[in-house]
Amino acid sequence: MGFKPSARRKIEEEEVNLLLNPMMDMFAVLIPGLLMLSAVVEVAVINVAAPSIGEGGSSAPPPEHPPLNLTVTITDKGYIVAGSGGVLGGTQAAPGEKQGPTIPLVQKTVVCSRFRGTWPPPRSVNKASPVCPKDRPMDQMSFQMYDTAALTRKIVEVKDSFPDERRIIIAAEPDIEYEAIIDVMDATRDVKEKGDEIRPLFDEVVLSPGVF
Questions:
Q1: Does position 173 have pLDDT exceeding 80, yes or no?
Q2: What residues does 111 pair with on adjacent strands?
Q3: d(C-alpha 140, C-alpha 12), whole Å
Q4: Domain residue extents for the chain
Q5: What is the pTM of this model?
Q6: What is the mean pLDDT of residues 67-93?
Q7: In the prediction, which pLDDT does 86 show?
Q8: Sequence-separated (6 or more) residues with CB below 8 Å from residue 87
C-alpha cells in the first residue's frame, strides 16, 4: 500500500527591519564629543635622541671650542649637573665620601591630585610617609621632592655662559621614576621670562643608555 507523500512546507520569507535609530543617536552624540576633545586636548612631542653607539671615525677637523656635554644626572638625593669641566656646584663632601648633588632634594608641600595612591618621586625616599589619598585629590602633603625650579635657574646660568649650546644629556639611576625624567626635560627645555616671553634653553635631549 502506498503512502501519501508529505506536503511541502512553504517557508515564508519575512523582512527584518533593523532599528538604526539607537546607532544614529550614538553617532550624533559621539561625533560632536570627539570634535570638542580634539580642540581641548593638546599632544606634546618631545624630541629625544638615543645615544649613538659605535660611530665610525670622522675626517672632520676638531671644533675650535670643545662641546659643553651638559649632563643632568637624577639620583635619589637630587640632581647632579656636570659639564666638560666637571660637576657644577654641589655640596662639599667630607674626605673619603662622594660629592653631594648640585641641587639636593627639598621638603615641599604638594597637592595630591597628581600622586593619588602613591608618593611623589623619589618614591624610595618618601616610602616612610603616608601615601596621597585616592579619594581626596585636593589634599596637601609634604614630601622630599626634586627642586625643579632650582634646576631651571642653574640651567639658565649655564645657558648665559654657553649661549650657542643646545644639547643636554639626561642620565638617571636605575630606580628613578619616569615622572622625574620628564620633569627634568620640562625644566631644562625653556623658561618663561619677563613679559611671558619663552626663552629656549637646551631643547636637544640625549638620553643616557642607562635610562632605557
A1: yes
A2: 140
A3: 72
A4: 67-89+147-212, 106-145
A5: 0.69
A6: 80
A7: 64
A8: 80, 81, 99, 102
